[in-house]
Write a structure and sequence with these properties.
The protein is α/β, with parallel strands linked by helices. Helix 5 packs across helix 6.
């Protein structure tokens, strides 16, 4: 290894300033060989220059290998990001022990770290809050494992089969972790952070910023779209939607084009290394000073959380909105903390389901103390889309239920009109359903809490009992492979279709004779509302706001059981009773229009934006600096 030196190596020209800065940082620290991972598209000449760089032994690209590059130069030296799996294919070290990632630590997943370790790498350098940082990969892996282990007690508390002593120990451990994190968040949002607040006179008082994890084909995302479009129709034009992961994985941009077509600005959240413009902004002396302050304030939080708050803070600081409206737990806690640090006058936290303690794959041990700290800030308003969801959050957070407002979902009744019968018949024919078939529909994410395997077990029993029935499920998610395998194991597998999410949900739902929803938990299942609005009777079970989203016995049938046999019996009886299906279907549109109207939702949302009192806002700003 060479001694540190400030003398340039005179490598081939690399135009991207982010890459230049990272390589220069490594050179100053005598890191003389790296495998370089670049999570954005590079021009072909830049790839060739990097492969000729004396410090770069191999590249991980976010694009297919350029066809014009000489095969000899590429052999064994190119890897690729695999966005669909949140990982990467990393080439051999070729002597290098260091990975240099031209992005921030929030973009590193456990899978990526595991693969790097298995390839023999020791260290990884990436951007963290205010500068490049080099960390041992084993330490980064330890952080990921610790985060998972810390969440286990909360998950175990829900396990009916866990022993009493184990549960008692888990609860004690969870209380210890949460008490420790609560102190951190109290310090984080204390008066010492006043210097990070945006001066009140610089706030754009008509500007609203939505923050959400993705724009995938989900019910919560549909309500983000409905709310944005409804606000636009009310004349609220200064609205930006900030998405944490818009294009990183196929399907995350499902609603993107609809929003852009309506003239609504949609941005993907990125840190200083996410674009050249962001990089130039980040190295501005004033922004660098903010980043140094953030680094001091955020110290002690998990590294990826520090970075995500920083990225959101920078976006909020640049846009200077009067209102930040966060959606779903992921964005509520991250954008909420960034918004309070920035001194945004109004913060809306929008829960779209029951509390995160029910969902293993999103739960983090610092969620509850973060929420409790945010709810102690005068500008924060917490809302949910169902009474059951609000009550569950309140119990989890130790709040009176009245502290969480309820704004039910809104459906644009004028836009949810039943397609022509000819279009429905053509769609059913394209799916291979006979004209006289009875079709059981489903439309939801293929994840554990939606219980797609229960849906399939019910449908399999119905298909076995009634030869003229078919099943059609629209969705994607982590259980897709298991669901496909189970379908192929059924004798009636040819009568079940598993389809990708469709942009024309209206036609897909209208082509069903009934909709079946078997989720364990729901906030307000949008698919139930849309099906009823289209005159499709529904059968549903499960907790949360499902029962509130239908009129049991009038627009559909709600069951408290989660056993496939009684659910299948109910579905068979309804399929056998055409008159009852017709009556349920006829009542659906009226119920949705009366209980889940779009105008009502928009009016209540605008009212929530104005909940924070003038005196509370004045108190919030009394300690804020003038510049």
């Amino acid at each position: 290894m060479r001694p540190p030196t400030d003398q340039p190596l005179k490598p081939p020209a690399v135009d991207d300033p982010r890459v230049q800065a990272a390589l220069a940082w490594c050179q100053k620290r005598a890191i003389d060989q790296v495998v370089l991972a670049v999570p954005f598209v590079l021009p072909e000449p830049a790839i060739a220059s990097l492969l000729a760089h004396p410090a770069v032994t191999a590249l991980v690209l976010d694009q297919a290998p350029p066809p014009g590059l000489a095969l000899g130069a590429m052999e064994g030296r190119l890897g690729q990001f695999q966005r669909a799996d949140y990982t990467w294919q990393v080439p051999a070290r070729r002597g290098a022990r260091d990975l240099l990632y031209i992005g921030d630590c929030a973009g590193l997943t456990a899978r990526m770290i595991r693969i790097a370790l298995t390839r023999g790498f020791l260290n990884l350098t990436c951007w963290r809050v205010d500068d490049w940082h080099r960390r041992p990969l084993l330490l980064l892996a330890g952080y990921k494992v610790l985060s998972f282990v810390q969440s286990l007690p909360a998950r175990g508390v829900r396990g009916a089969d866990a022993g009493a002593q184990v549960l008692l120990g888990a609860e004690r451990y969870l209380r210890y972790v949460e008490t420790h994190q609560r102190r951190r968040f109290a310090r984080l949002l204390g008066d010492a952070t006043a210097a990070l607040r945006i001066p009140l006179q610089q706030i754009v008082h008509a500007r609203i910023l939505f923050v959400c994890p993705t724009l995938c084909a989900g019910g919560a995302e549909r309500q983000i779209v409905n709310t944005a479009l409804g606000l636009r129709q009310q004349g609220i034009a200064d609205l930006t939607i900030l998405v944490s992961n818009l294009r990183g994985r196929p399907g995350n941009d499902f609603f993107y084009h609809q929003l852009v077509a309506a003239g609504i600005e949609v941005r993907e959240l990125g840190g200083p290394a996410s674009s050249i413009d962001a990089w130039r902004d980040a190295i501005d002396p004033a922004v660098k000073a903010l980043l140094r302050r953030l680094a001091r304030v955020l110290r002690g939080l998990p590294a990826d959380l520090q970075q995500e708050i920083t990225n959101l803070y920078l976006a909020i600081h640049a846009l200077r909105p009067a209102i930040v409206h966060a959606w779903l737990d992921y964005s509520n806690v991250r954008a909420g903390l960034a918004a309070v640090l920035a001194g945004v006058p109004r913060l809306i936290l929008s829960g779209r389901n029951v509390s995160p303690i029910h969902f293993d794959y999103i739960y983090q041990p610092w969620y509850r103390p973060a929420y409790q700290a945010l709810l102690g800030s005068p500008q924060t308003v917490f809302i949910n889309n169902s009474r059951a969801g609000a009550a569950d959050y309140a119990a989890w957070l130790g709040l009176p239920p009245r502290e969480i407002g309820v704004i039910r979902n809104g459906v644009d009744h004028a836009a949810i009109t039943r397609p022509a019968q000819a279009a429905i018949a053509a769609h059913r024919h394209a799916l291979g359903f006979p004209a006289a078939a009875l079709v059981i529909g489903g439309m939801f994410r293929l994840s554990e809490e939606k219980r797609p395997l229960l849906w399939l077990e019910v449908v399999a029993r119905v298909l076995a009992a009634r030869a003229g029935t078919h099943g059609c499920l629209y969705g994607q998610g982590p259980l897709a492979e298991a669901l496909n395998a189970r379908i192929h194991s059924f004798p009636e597998s040819g009568r079940v279709r598993l389809m990708a999410p469709t942009a024309d949900a209206r036609l897909a739902l209208a082509a069903c004779d009934l909709l079946l929803l078997t989720s364990a938990w729901e906030g307000t299942p949008n698919v139930l509302l849309e099906a009823q609005a289209l005159g499709v009777p529904v059968v549903a079970c499960g907790g949360g706001g499902t029962a509130e989203s239908m009129a049991d016995g009038e627009t559909g049938l709600y069951l408290t059981e989660s056993d496939p046999d009684p659910i299948a019996t109910t579905v068979v009886r309804l399929l056998d009773d055409a008159d009852r299906r017709r009556r349920l279907g006829q009542a659906g549109p009226r119920f949705v229009a009366e209980q889940f109207g779009m105008a009502r939702m928009i009016d209540e949302t605008i009212a929530a934006y104005a909940v924070v009192s003038t005196s509370a806002t004045a108190k919030l700003w009394s300690a804020a600096p003038d510049s």
